[in-house]
TrEMBL record:
Lineage: Bacteria, Bacillati, Actinomycetota, Actinomycetes, Jatrophihabitantales
GO molecular function: methyltransferase activity
Keyword Transferase: yes
Gene Ontology BP term (one): methylation
Name of the protein in its database record: RNA methyltransferase
Boundaries of every tRNA/rRNA methyltransferase SpoU type domain copy: 119-258
Keywords: Methyltransferase, Transferase
Length: 263
């Protein structure tokens, strides 16, 4: 990277990757671009295998990122906070953004060959929950995330931000074919399927001996796993709770399960 190039005009075409980000993720012409926000997230993006297209930020944030930005083969633009906010379309408080090319999807079979601890998500459509799950997977050494076809996009801007950029380091893939029949892909390579549910007949997670290879199945906030997904699991597991409380946020529940199984 050469020195940062100053830009004073929010309409400068060099900022097009960052323009109107409130709606960018839903525009067909922008679906190949991934956006990272904030120093920590941009740094994780820069250290990942994703190809960075450009970085834009205020002087202080670019200075904080200088060691990693100098290793990038991508332009870096310096702007003031007003120019940045006007180009992006909202008040940017984190002071720096980066754009990268979306990588080619990873086949589920390839992801399963990379490890033995997984999260499997059914109908997780809340972007913040999705990002939190990726952050928790990184924290507890989960090797990858498998999504059913109805899950939200982990590379949506809000998911990336909430994940603190860990979505760039935790591999993920969409399970192909009919759900939950596609879970047979995991069973075929010896992965035990542990379904999280508050049902009384489930086994307390603290008493579960972690199998050699496992996947924790997590369902959408509120309804939880469908009956079909529960029927496809090898074992039902639950988190014991105080009377009057029957469930946790899905990302929190996943974190408890990951911690129990990896400790």
């Amino acid at each position: 990277m050469s020195a940062a190039v100053p830009i004073a005009d929010p309409g400068d075409p060099r900022l097009d990757d960052f323009r109107d980000l409130m709606h960018a993720d839903t525009r067909p012409d922008r679906r190949g671009i991934v956006i990272a926000e904030g120093v920590n997230v941009v740094e994780r993006l820069a250290r990942s295998s994703y190809r960075v297209r450009a970085v834009v930020g205020v002087e202080a944030k670019l200075t904080a990122l200088a060691p990693v930005l100098h290793q990038l083969d991508a332009p870096v633009y310096e702007v003031d906070k007003w120019t940045l906010s006007e180009a992006v379309g909202f008040r940017v408080t984190r002071g720096v953004l980066a754009a990268a090319d979306r990588p080619e999807p990873v086949p589920a079979e390839s992801l399963l060959a990379t490890g033995w601890r997984f999260a499997v998500l059914e109908q997780i459509n809340d972007f913040e929950n999705l990002g939190s799950i990726f952050r928790n997977c990184a924290a507890f050494g989960v090797d990858g995330v498998l999504l059913d076809p109805r899950c939200a996009d982990p590379l949506y801007r809000r998911s990336v931000r909430v994940s603190m950029g860990h979505v760039f380091g935790v591999g993920f893939a969409v399970l192909p074919g009919r759900w939950p029949d596609s879970l047979e892909l995991l069973r075929a390579v010896g992965v035990d399927l542990l379904a999280m549910t508050p049902r009384a007949e489930a086994v307390a997670i603290r008493s579960v001996v972690a199998p050699r290879s496992w996947a924790v199945l997590l369902g959408a906030e509120g309804p939880g796993l469908t009956e079909a997904a529960l029927a496809a699991a090898d074992q039902w597991v639950r988190i014991p709770m105080a009377a009057g409380v029957d469930s946790l946020n899905v990302a929190t529940a996943g974190a408890v399960a990951f911690a129990q199984l990896t400790c």
